[in-house]
């Protein structure tokens, strides 16, 4: 299968993600799948400095003011914008686990599934919740 079309890449990502989710289920870890799709507006908002605000106008003319709640961690070219990434959060006693060691076993497994699978725990600015398919350049 040629993976030059985004829809083919998304299909492969969905297959790979289902294998990771099965591994998580088998481990009996409690988890949720967080953000998979991110709009361009969300990516832009995530790139703003903490405390920034911006205004948006709906198609009906309603004006909304938003505060940048994440503060500069998002990137404008995120794989989430192409539906090629998912954030997975592990839980213990109803609290999100933030220890990278808890995610490493799943990051290693994810990267073993395909040469283009990347776990955010290895990024220069680590994001332990992030699992993406990073297709090679066309």
How is the secondary structure organized here?
Blueprint: H1 6-26, E1 30-33, H2 40-46, E2 53-57, E3 63-67, E4 85-92, E5 95-96, H3 100-113, E6 117-119, E7 130-133
Antiparallel strand pairs: 1-4, 2-3, 4-5, 4-7, 6-7
Helix pairs in contact: 1-3
Question: How does this structure look, described?
Answer:
By secondary structure, the chain is α+β, with helices and mostly antiparallel strands. It folds into 2 domains: 1-38 and 78-138, Muramoyl-pentapeptide Carboxypeptidase, domain 2 (2-Layer Sandwich); 39-74, no CATH class. It has 3 helices and 7 strands, in the order αβαββββαββ. It has helices at 6-26, 40-46, 100-113; strands spanning 30-33, 53-57, 63-67, 85-92, 95-96, 117-119, 130-133. Strands 1, 4, 5, 6 and 7 form a 5-stranded antiparallel sheet that branches. Strands 2-3 form a two-stranded antiparallel ribbon. α1 packs across α3 (100-113). The longest helix has 21 residues, at 6-26. The chain is globular. It starts with 5 loop residues before the first helix and ends in a 5-residue tail after the last strand. Mean pLDDT is 81; it is low at 69-73.
Summarize the structure.
The protein folds into two domains: 99 residues, Muramoyl-pentapeptide Carboxypeptidase, domain 2; 36 residues, no CATH class. The chain has three helices and seven strands. Strand 4 and strand 5 form a beta hairpin.
């Amino acid at each position: 299968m040629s993976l030059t079309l985004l829809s083919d890449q998304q299909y492969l990502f969905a297959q790979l993600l289902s294998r990771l989710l099965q591994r998580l289920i088998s481990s009996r870890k409690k988890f949720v799948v967080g953000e998979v799709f991110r709009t361009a507006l969300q990516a832009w908002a995530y790139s703003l400095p903490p405390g920034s605000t911006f205004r948006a106008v709906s198609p009906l003319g309603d004006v909304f003011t938003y505060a940048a709640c994440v503060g500069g961690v998002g990137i404008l070219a995120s794989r989430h914008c192409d539906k090629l990434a998912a954030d997975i959060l592990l839980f213990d006693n109803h609290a999100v686990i933030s220890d990278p060691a808890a995610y490493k076993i799943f990051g290693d497994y994810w990267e073993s599934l395909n040469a283009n699978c990347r776990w955010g725990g290895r990024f220069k600015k680590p994001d332990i919740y992030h699992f993406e398919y990073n297709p090679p350049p066309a």
